[in-house]
Amino acid sequence: MSTKIMNSDFEITQNPVISQMSSMDHDQILFCSDNVTGLKAIIAIHDTTLGPALGGTRMWSYNNELDALNDVLRLSRGMTYKNAISNLALGGGKAVIIGDSKTMKSEALFRRFGRFVNSLAGNYITAEDVGISPSDMVWVSKETNHVVGLPGKSGDPSPVTAFGTYMGMKACAKIRFGTDALEGRKILVQGVGHVGEYLVEYLRKERAEVFIADISDDTVRKVVQKYGAKGIELNKVYQQDMDIYAPCALGGTINDDTLAKLKCGIIAGAANNQLSIENAHGQALLDKGILYAPDFAINAGGVINCFSEVKDLSSEWAMGKAEDIYHTIHDIVARSERERIPSHVIAMRMAEEKINNGRSNTK
After folding, report:
1. Element of type H or E holding 359
2. CA distance 146 to 345
3. Pairing mode of beta strands 28-34, 57-60
4. Conformational region of residue 205, where left means phi above 0, alpha means psi within -120 to 50, and beta covers everything else
5. What's the rounded mean pLDDT across residues 244-264?
6. Neighbour tally for 331: CB within 10 Å
7. CB atoms within 10 A of CB 252
8. Domain ranges of the chain
9. pLDDT of residue 8
10. How far is residue 189's CA from residue 187's CA, in Å, rounded to a whole number?
11. Is pLDDT of 10 > 60?
12. Which helix (H) or strand (E) holds 108?
């Protein structure tokens, strides 16, 4: 509901969406609707100081449109920080398509979405995210050149995301345990879709003791059989005795309820927006002595992979850049421990410094 403010000359309508954009410092939001294809989508551009906004498109059955808006605003801001802290010449953006990815996909829907992306004239570059595949992006690419992660090019970014997450996890282990070796460590991976499964593969190769949980029982059975992981029920995740918790599904799993139950020394996973309430739960983790690898810093492998396609760089370059996430996370977490400031605050300050330097250089 909008709020109306009256003065003697005219009536002003204060739009709560604009207020929300302003509070998170967003540049632009595009609401997309097409009755013919059933498309309902939101594209959010947070910042383009360092370059065009790049971020994936997520397809999800949100409870309501406000939930979708909140998600795309947080995700797009996270992309700005992710690209900045990774020293990529990109800004931050994100898109969400509201709908069931199992039943609502069609070429017409994705091509219509592609036309909306194209209307932004290169200010936003899209790629796949949750619920979207590289083949879906092929349909989008029929209507716009502003799309990456296509088959035959950089492709699925999941392996690079998983590798960067793995390296960031090892950096946290170095600080907490004095060694970055993960052999014998109890690690719980929540969400074993594309990224989570690749992460499990890295961990099992290092002979970590890996527990997994997922909303899909079939997926759990497949990953257990393939890698020798141990499946647990979703409702037992936060009671599990573990050294490292790796959230790799949707965000918000670090909240008041789970913080009271979690038994781990490190949180290092690939999910976005892991802290349900950033400042409150980031501080709570610091107070509890749990090392937290900020999500937008540890999961930057995916956007690194996309950047390699934008700049026509090799897959070897992308993997090498993702390996550097080890040093980024080590610096953030070590500084957090030293200064007793939540790690996500440290990471945001580092990213904002890069963005402010970018603004200064353009003046």
Report:
1. helix 343-362
2. 32
3. unpaired
4. alpha
5. 94
6. 15
7. 18
8. 3-73+90-141, 158-353
9. 39
10. 6
11. no
12. helix 107-118
| Close Cβ partners of 217 (under 8 Å, ≥ 6 residues apart) | none
CATH code for 3-73+90-141? 3.40.50.10860
From the list 40, 94, 186, 321, the catalytic residue is 94
Residue 76 has pLDDT above 70, yes or no: yes
Backbone angles phi, psi at 313, to 5 degrees: -100, 165
- Listing DSSP states for 292-346 in one string gives E--HHHHTTHHHHHHHHHHTT--HHHHHHHHHTHHHHHHHHHHHHHHHT--HHHH
94 is catalytic: yes
Q: Do domains 3-73+90-141 and 158-353 have the same CATH topology?
A: yes
Q: Are 109 and 37 in contact (CB under 8 A)?
A: yes
Q: How confident is the model at residue 5 (pLDDT cuts 50, 70, 90)?
A: very low
Write the class of the CATH domain 158-353: alpha beta
Kindly state the DSSP code that residue 89 receives in the 8-state scheme. S
Calculate the alpha carbon distances from 123 to 74, 185, 226, 260 in Å.
18, 43, 42, 42
Q: Is the pLDDT of residue 223 over 60?
A: yes
Q: How confident is the model at residue 247 (pLDDT cuts 50, 70, 90)?
A: very high
Query: Three-state SS for 93?
Result: strand
Average pLDDT, rounded, for the chain? 92
Amino acid 363: pLDDT: 53
pLDDT tens, position by position, 318-354: 999 999 999 999 999 999 999 999 999 999 999 999 9
Q: What pLDDT score does 18 carry?
A: 79
| Cα separation, 123 vs 103, whole angstroms | 30
Phi-psi region of 155 (alpha: psi -120 to 50; beta: other; left: phi over 0): left
